[in-house]
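PROTOCOL LOG
Step 1. Enter all chains and additional molecules of the complex.
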Amino acid sequence: MRQGSIPGLFLVVLGIVLSFVPHYILPVCQHGIQLASGDVAPMRCFYTGQMEMACGVALAVLGVFVLLARSVPMRRGLGLAGLLLSLLILAVPTVLIGVCPGEAMPCHAGTYPAVMVLGVVSALVCLLCCVRTARG
Amino acid sequence: MSAEHPESLGKTEGYGAALGQPLTLWRLARTNLRRRAFRTGCLVFIVALFSAVLFGGAVLNKNTERGLHSMSARLGADLIIVPTGYQKDMQVALLRGEPSSFSINAGLTEQVRAIHGVQQASPQLFLASLGAACCDVKVQLVGFEPETDFVVRPWLKEQLDRPLGDHEIVVGSSIFAKPGQSIKFFNEEFKVAAKMDRTGMGFDSSVFFTLNATRLLVRHNADALNELRTVRALADQPDAGLSGAVSGGLPSSSGASALLGVSDSSGVPITQPSPAASAEPHIILQDTANPDAVISSVMVKIAPDATVDGVASVIRMTLGKTFGVDTVETAGLISSLASNLNFLTYLLMGASSFLWLLALIILFLVFSGSFNERKKEMAVLRVLGATKKRLAAMLLTESLIISVLGACIGVVCGWIVSFPFSALIFQAMRTPYLQVTASEALLLALTTLFLAAIMGPIASLWSVISISQTDVYATLREGE
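Step 2. Run joint prediction.
Step 3. Record the structure below.
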């Protein structure tokens, strides 16, 4: 088995799971806020969900590249890119967009921890990928 | 592996690596495991599965136990009087904080106080905030009488050392508000006087008012409801010309917009209403005509010389039919939850024991089979000068590496499920659930690590003993 196979496979699986979490596995809040005008505005967790779905797809594609990459510097570069993507995955629900404040709300109780766990795991996998390639 | 051929030490280590580095016990064991990566992976998985179930189960059990203790300690009332047929609603409000509202005649409190054996009796009024749609933070509004209360005040000794004012509230730990902040409920502004510690039960998502403030809210709600009904009735008339005012089912009047939800002083919503909740205004109390005349329950403390059963039956007999009330014995509620907890404990203990035994048997079979395969390798190592003790140590190290690795992975997986998803588990458990402290969690993790780590060495004991009974010469000549 090639050196990049296991991290690559991990990233593909993590990316696929992440892209399904916000709308299918542990969905964000389904309803929006009804404004006085009668319009329904989505809550911020909806946008977090959309962003995480996109990040998940990007992570899966990056995993495929890690699987296909033949040279060590390329794998190292992809590992670094994955690490940055993982940091973005973690930043979206915490700093950039956020989730609903209520602890009992579906996005806070389910989506948020799932995204955080997946983000941390993908960051560790990418870090491992970088370290292993740095060792040669 | 064949230790006499350094190239077989492992594909990644290679000949040069084996020659360049001393062949220590640890290196030998690690190389053996790496060379049989699939077998090692499967064994690690088995140990990890056991550890994850044991640690996750233990945390779940401990959290439920803590939740139950918290509830038992905080429910100062021995008896709760509720309208007939609403016992379940009361339990649900206490355990999960799911909003309920029910009403009985306020005159009941005085009648209860007059009964022999009743030491203290204090009324409470329960109002349901926004509806049960997906995106609402379900808030149970609880009104209590500060002068007679003996249930809520004792929890707030540290947070609030004075009586609660009529425009002040105490919020549960799950409510997104800080002490000092102002929050609007039904267009009425309240200041957060204190925030309760986490209880692990329904109180975490409840807001506590004085009884007077709660009645004020009922009046506000009734006014807004009447206003909305009027607007809707006018809008239903084709010539009324008010269709624009009822855009999206909501008029733009201030009273009705108060029904939208709970907001802070700047108008930022604290809870988010759903379309369902806003399209149909929430009736927060069944009888809104005269809020001063209604309460939802009476909390009763029984005198030391009386029995809960005795007082409860007197209340049911004398006041049951007149006021249409029934009683909920808190001890019974707690004992029924405790029996559920016992069942959960037995289930988890049983599952953990079964998995431990199963993992031990599998490890034993795999280690024994592996030892038989490696008899010649052991014999060669003996010929090369390795003592029996050294070979035994190598086997024990291999098994210890597998079990420690599996234990660590299992504990991490158990932690990932138990801690970040605790809110989700609490919602699914439907019982009081209070997270363990860091020190308790660490103790549970160490216990799990120990139990899982000893599995490997125990399972490989037979193989280790067999080494001393193996004849080196006969083994080497085997098959010739």
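Step 4. Note key features.
The interface with chain A takes residues 133-135, 137-138, 174, 176, 205, 247-250, 252, 257, 260, 269-276, 278-279, 416, 420-421, 423-424, 427 of chain B (CB under 8 Å).
Chain B has 17 helices and twelve strands.
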